[in-house]
Amino acid sequence: MSASSALKISAGTTPENFAKERLKTLIERVERLEEEKSELASDIRDVYAEAKSTGFEPKVMRQIIRLRKMDSEARMEQEELLDLYKSSLGML
Amino acid sequence: MSASSALKISAGTTPENFAKERLKTLIERVERLEEEKSELASDIRDVYAEAKSTGFEPKVMRQIIRLRKMDSEARMEQEELLDLYKSSLGML
Amino acid sequence: MSASSALKISAGTTPENFAKERLKTLIERVERLEEEKSELASDIRDVYAEAKSTGFEPKVMRQIIRLRKMDSEARMEQEELLDLYKSSLGML
Amino acid sequence: MSASSALKISAGTTPENFAKERLKTLIERVERLEEEKSELASDIRDVYAEAKSTGFEPKVMRQIIRLRKMDSEARMEQEELLDLYKSSLGML
DNA sequence: CCTCAGTGGCATTTCC
DNA sequence: GGAAATGCCACTGAGG
Smallest Cβ distance to A44: which of B30, B41, B65? Predict the structure, then answer.
């Protein structure tokens, strides 16, 4: 489709239409991402279901995962703190 | 634990170890999925930030998205209702 | 109430007793409300039972009710969105 | 509106319309009850909010209420059991 | 008995 | 940073 014809103004790119299209695009991007996020959530539920059927309690697993997450976050904070010290002392 | 081979004791596949490995695998699968989920959440925040910097209010966008989601859910429920009617009337 | 009388100490309104009484009142209010809520749940079950005995499937009824609820919620969200647009445009 | 005219058959009380009206009534009864139920739930939330603002922890209050409920249910069961014994022994 | 929807509670996130 | 809202999980209770 060519944009060279001024005759097609009625469906053209007025500023309002431009904004409208832009908004539409942004919303669809979010929706797509949300969709993928939901699928991952569903995958996670599946893993827990599988675990449960093998005899592992999902509740306990969640606890473990929470703890490991806290651990790794604490470790990262420690490292950031260390870097801060180093840079303060001109050691980076 | 089998006593048939003394050599494999330390790293052997006793039932307990088997369960332990299985649990470890499951937990790592969940952690990987959670990781991806977080990245998507981050992507979504980015889109909203970008939208905001272009003059669109995230609050409005969220509302629009919520409405669109409700619509599609309503449509799905409609279909379920229809199936229910059909099954009630022996048409399935 | 005055603390000048030593006679009323044992059952008096010390700060602790005051808090205790207040807590008791709050808890009883919740319990009363929960009670009424349970009665309504029971009434609802009765209606479904009656419907079933007249030949209507509760499952279908629930689905219909769910849909109607979604509709009314969608309507409310529509209005909120409109308000949001208005406030975005300084029309409120 | 008069029911004396046979001319109004098209909107009349055919068996299907009768069933339809009956269903409508049942559904509206349920919806009304659900509505009241929601209002009570809202009232309960309000009480907890009020309690919280006065310094009581809702979480603890919920615990207390749960325990008291268990107690009263246990007591009722005890009494039912006692009645059963009595009737077995011709003491009612 | 067992599945499943509904509901309350909790945690995270978001907005002010 | 604190309050409010949203989404998620566990649990209870109803229905098959």
Answer: B30
Whole-structure pTM value = 0.83
Of all nucleotides, the one whose C1′ comes closest to residue B48's CA is E14
For B74, residues 6+ apart whose C-beta sits below 8 A from its C-beta are: C67, C70, C71, C74
Rounded-to-integer distance, Cα B61 and Cα A34, Å: 13
Cβ neighbours of A65 in B, within 8 Å? 27, 30-31, 34
Kindly report, residue by residue over B32-66, the tens digit of the pLDDT.
999 999 999 999 999 999 999 999 999 999 999 99
> Which pLDDT does position C59 carry in this prediction?
94
The pLDDT tens digits for A59-85 are 889 989 998 988 888 888 888 889 999
Q: State the Cα–Cα distance between residues B20 and A54, nearest whole angstrom.
A: 12
CB D58 within 8 A of CB D51: yes
Contact C77, B63 (CB under 8 A): yes
Q: Is B64 near strand E, with its CB below 7 A from some atom of it? A: no
The DSSP output letter for C91 is -
Closest Cα in chain D, distance from residue C18 (Å): 12
**DSSP secondary structure letter of residue A55:** T
User: Are B30 and A47 a contacting pair at CB < 8 A?
Assistant: yes
The span from the CA of C60 to the CA of C51, in Å, is 11
Q: Position of tokens 């539409």?
A: A24
B contact test, residue of C62, C77, C86, C91 with most B CBs within 10 A = C77
Check: CB of residue C67 under 8 Å from CB of residue B77.
yes
Distance B70 CA to E6 C1' (A): 19
Phi-psi region of B59 (alpha: psi -120 to 50; beta: other; left: phi over 0): alpha
- Our CA angle for D27, D32, D36, nearest 5°, is 145
Q: Which chain A residues 30-49 have CB under 7 A to strand F?
A: 37-38, 41, 44-45
Name the closest nucleotide to B57, judged by C1' and CA. E15
